[in-house]
Specification:
Radius of gyration: 19 Å
Strand content: under 5%
Mean pLDDT: 73
Number of strands: 0
Order of helices and strands: HHHH
Distance between the termini: 23 Å
Structural class: mainly alpha
């Protein structure tokens, strides 16, 4: 009798985590649109402009952020782990 409610609760927990992940992904996409090389270069003086490679290097090295897509789908992997 307890197995079915436990299964329903686990599905609800997975759904909640998936919604949270979608929200995080959308927020990160918005951040990528705001923080990019072109926007930066438009807002600074000519002597402070940087190449795209340097811009990416700073975010990768100092903040552990990348602007690419993961090599494998992360959502199915997450669901398998949960």
């Amino acid at each position: 009798m307890e197995a079915l409610p436990a299964l329903v609760d686990s599905v609800r927990a997975i759904q909640t985590k998936l919604v949270e992940l979608r929200t995080i992904r959308e927020e990160f996409s918005d951040m990528k649109a705001i923080i990019n090389n072109q926007n930066y270069n438009l807002k600074v003086d000519d002597d402070l402009k940087v190449k795209k490679s340097y811009f990416r290097h700073v975010f990768n090295a100092k903040y552990n952020l990348s602007f690419g897509t993961p090599p494998t789908p992360t959502l199915p992997t997450f669901v398998q782990l949960v």
